[in-house]
Amino acid sequence: MVGSTGLSSSSSSHHHHHSHHHSYTPSSRILTDVPCKVCHDNSSGKHYGIFACDGCAGFFKRSIRRNRQYVCKNKGQGGCQVDKTHRNQCRACRLKKCVEAGMNRDGKSIPPFFQSH
């Protein structure tokens, strides 16, 4: 009798462990069906208010945190192609496209005391 109860409790705890393991998958990083609004790469969800890939989100974060002023490679004319292939070639146009796509630093978890008013 004792053996059978021991067996059922161990199987239920095993089942619980399995379901916990199943819920803990890296699928939170699975890319969404919505492309990055900046470079049209696979986005990883919303960053700074728009769907964006980790690359553009990280680029935007670094740019605003360091208050970067980029100069367009195209003699300052703008209009450089910003896509998955070319997004790293002109940071000025990439940042401009981030902003034009709707990215803003208030869109995502930057603590208020970091913001300069």
Automatic annotation (TrEMBL):
> What keywords is this UniProt entry annotated with?
DNA-binding, Metal-binding, Nucleus, Receptor, Transcription, Transcription regulation, Zinc, Zinc-finger
Against Pfam families, the record matches this protein to: zf-C4
Provide the Nuclear receptor domain boundaries.
Answer: 33-110
Residue ranges for the region (Disordered) are 1-28
Which Gene Ontology terms cover its molecular function? DNA-binding transcription factor activity; sequence-specific DNA binding; zinc ion binding
Compositional bias segments (type: Basic residues): 13-23
**Which family, according to the similarity comment?**
Belongs to the nuclear hormone receptor family.
Q: What is this protein called?
A: Nuclear receptor subfamily 2 group E member 1
Native organism is: Brachionus plicatilis (Marine rotifer)
